[in-house]
Amino acid sequence: MLYKLIRNILFMFDAETSHNMALKSLNIVYKLGFSKLFFKKMVHDPVTVMGLTFYNRVGLAAGLDKNATYIDALSATGFGFIEVGTVTPKGQPGNDKPRLFRIPQANAIINRMGFNNNGVEDLIKAVKNSKYTGQLGINIGKNIFTPVENAVDDYLYCFEHVYAYADYITVNISSPNTPGLRSLQHGEALVSLLSALKGKQSALNTSQNKYVPLAVKIAPDLTSEEIVELSETFLKTEVDCVIATNTTSSREGVENLQHGNEQGGLSGAPVKKSSTHVVKEFSRLFDGKIPLIAVGGIMSPQDAVEKIEAGADLVQIYSGFIYEGPDLIYSCAKAISER
To answer: Which residues contact 103 (CB under 8 A, 6 or more apart)?
Structure first.
């Protein structure tokens, strides 16, 4: 009830303003030591994935805390792990505002943020200043002004810089808001990118005596043939994890609603079906060889359990957190632990 009241107030403002207000308010609550008064105790349901032990199976998806500014405050809400970013080598403002739109009738969000962030050096400082002890994923991308054919340079730069501070690193090649980015999901471009990153991972493992798993985040807008092709590439290049999925370019379910045809990626309830389908297909093709993190349309405990039953090892939430609040974290983690 309390969160619904707070949400109604926040929803009086435009989506990006309320997003920033919510994070700053959460940080104030944390710094004043009031987190235990507002949030339920974290569900203890440890699980080992990618060689890492997670507090529970419910994590925060990338995109909410792009600059790792609010790690400690977010961890107090009960997440079993947190993923920050997407971060790029140099800071960039992202796309013009407005670029974030709520569609409450469909429990959906459309964003065309465009990898707005302060750059990798700033993110590293924030991570170093954090007190967080859980598993931290860092999501990396390319700068918008970097040509797609040179994208590997940006990914290698970020990968090397965050390696010492991440528990796993996610390669974001599936955002629809950076021109040409999704072309990296296919063919030789993907093989070259992943081969370069796996080579860098091997070298850093030797020099730092620390193995940091490499995850790849993919789109839900894939044909059956593309899923098969991707699975073969991921198995061949020995990636450590696949995150399925990012936002969708489809407008099914929101096309007749206010903001439903805004440009950008659609998240929330409308993407659940396609995301779960992708998880199920990759799980079948991987046959346990590569773990999966499922994200997309988790708005209830039942949705979270459905992702696990589709073959996911872990789940992440974002839009559900916006619409349902911190109680969703607890209820999803509890439902999965009792499954």
So the answer is: 109, 110, 254, 257, 258, 259, 260, 268
How far is it, in rounded angstroms, from Cα 38 to Cα 327? Answer: 10
The domain that holds 288 is classified in CATH as 3.20.20.70
Q: Is residue 309 part of a domain?
A: yes
Secondary structure class of 218 (helix, strand, coil): strand
Residue 7 lies inside a defined structural domain of this protein? no
* Region label for 94, one of left (φ > 0), alpha (ψ between -120 and 50) or beta (otherwise): left
Contact 58, 336 (CB under 8 A): yes
The count of domains in the chain is 1
Active site residue 192: no
How far is it between the farthest Cα atoms of the chain?
54
The pLDDT assigned to 246 comes to 92
For residue 18, being part of any structural domain is answered with: no
Instruction: Single out the catalytic residue among 75, 174, 175, 319.
Output: 175
Cβ atoms of residues 57 and 45 within 8 Å:
yes
Q: What is the pLDDT of residue 263?
A: 93
DSSP letter, residue 95: S
Residue 172 to residue 58: CA distance in whole angstroms? 20
Strand spans (E) along 196-287: 214-218, 241-244, 265-268
Domain that holds residue 48: 39-338
End-to-end CA distance of the chain: 26
Place of tokens 């999501």: 139
Mean pLDDT by 10 residues, the chain (339 residues): 85 94 94 90 96 98 97 97 97 96 96 96 98 97 93 97 98 81 79 96 98 96 93 96 94 94 94 97 97 97 98 97 95 96
62 occurs within a structural domain: yes
